[in-house]
Amino acid sequence: MADLSHSAETRDALDRGAPLVALESTIITHGMPYPQNLETALQVEEDIREAGAVPATVAVLEGRLHVGLERAELEALAQASDAAKVSRADMAACMARGGTGATTVSATMIAAHLAGISVFATGGIGGVHRGAELSFDISADLQELAQTPVTVVAAGAKAILDIPKTLEVLETLGVPVIAHGQDDFPAFWSRASGLPAPLRMDSARQIAEAQRMRGALGLPGGQLVGNPVPQAEEIAAETLAPIINRAQDEAEAQGISGKAVTPFLLGRIFELTDGQSLRTNIALVRNNARLAAQIAREICALR
Ligand code: PSU
Ligand code: MN
User: Fold this and answer.
1) Domains along the chain?
2) What is the DSSP pairing of strand 101-103 with strand 119-121?
3) Is 133 designated active site?
4) What's 186's DSSP letter?
5) Given 24, 45, 234, 298, which residue is catalytic?
6) How far from the centroid of its chain's Cα atoms is residue 91's Cα?
7) C-alpha distances out from residue 227 to 40, 169, 182, 286, Å
């Protein structure tokens, strides 16, 4: 078994059997600019504590897999310009060569499961990119949800993705997709995607019970919870559509491909919305962290 490193706080919570929420770090290094990335990471950890759970931010630091970062480690990662973006495919290679990398949803799920943490909060998951019928660009996050038993709370999938195809692939892979408190699957910056989620649950308790039942049935994999961004912070889908199209056209014209696509699009949308996309992103991550903390507490209570 891989040897994990923990912050003192995370280690203590694991020892006590306290509710824990894992957090990814690609959002810190590749999803937001400094210093908002650091402020948000610290704020989200605090939101989880206030909601009665313990945060565990995941990253690979100099070859070691950390589940729970000390503040100085988080500060260094937020300012690192050379951190790799690590997902399932490159996690072991990064560790073997002593590298430093931020974990995506897929790598964070793997790390959380190794540490015995079953709930994870993020902003948005990766999914099927537009034009995937030609590019085959489908995030490893989807396959991970099918095989690793962690409930992931996200604000849905970004409109930079092909949301109908993303939902189809999740169905094929047997991943429960749950909208929290509404019928629509949320669309990250906007509350509604115009597409109903296959499942709807209105409480953290229901989500925890569904996860437990999956385990009892011996089904592999996790659950995806789509938690809509708070109304006051949402950006209307109509406002964003032309901006997303423009960012997409630029990515294509500049030949951006592979793992560079998502960070490029996020960066351009930030610029083209004069920072409004970042404010919304911060609000939705915090909202997801609070729900994830409630789910983690319910899972503990069911044990
Ligand atoms: N969605 C966001 N912000 C992010 C990401 C997704 O709103 O930073 C990151 C996550 O870490 C996710 C990854 O796992 O992008 C997906 O990348 P790709 O599309 O290359 O699989
Ligand atoms: Mn991709």
Assistant:
1) 4-302 (3.40.1790.10)
2) unpaired
3) no
4) P
5) 24
6) 16
7) 18, 19, 9, 11
CB atoms inside a 10 Å sphere around CB 239:
13
pLDDT tens sequence for the chain (303 residues): 678 999 999 999 999 999 999 999 999 999 899 999 999 999 999 999 999 999 999 999 999 999 999 999 999 999 998 999 999 999 999 999 999 999 999 999 999 999 999 999 999 999 999 899 999 999 999 999 999 999 999 999 987 899 999 999 999 999 999 999 999 999 999 999 999 999 999 999 999 999 999 999 999 999 999 999 999 999 988 899 999 999 999 999 999 988 898 889 989 999 999 999 999 999 999 999 999 999 999 999 998
- Report the atom number in ligand 1 closest to the C-alpha of 30: 8
- In this structure, the strands spanning 119-121 and 64-67 are unpaired
24 is catalytic: yes
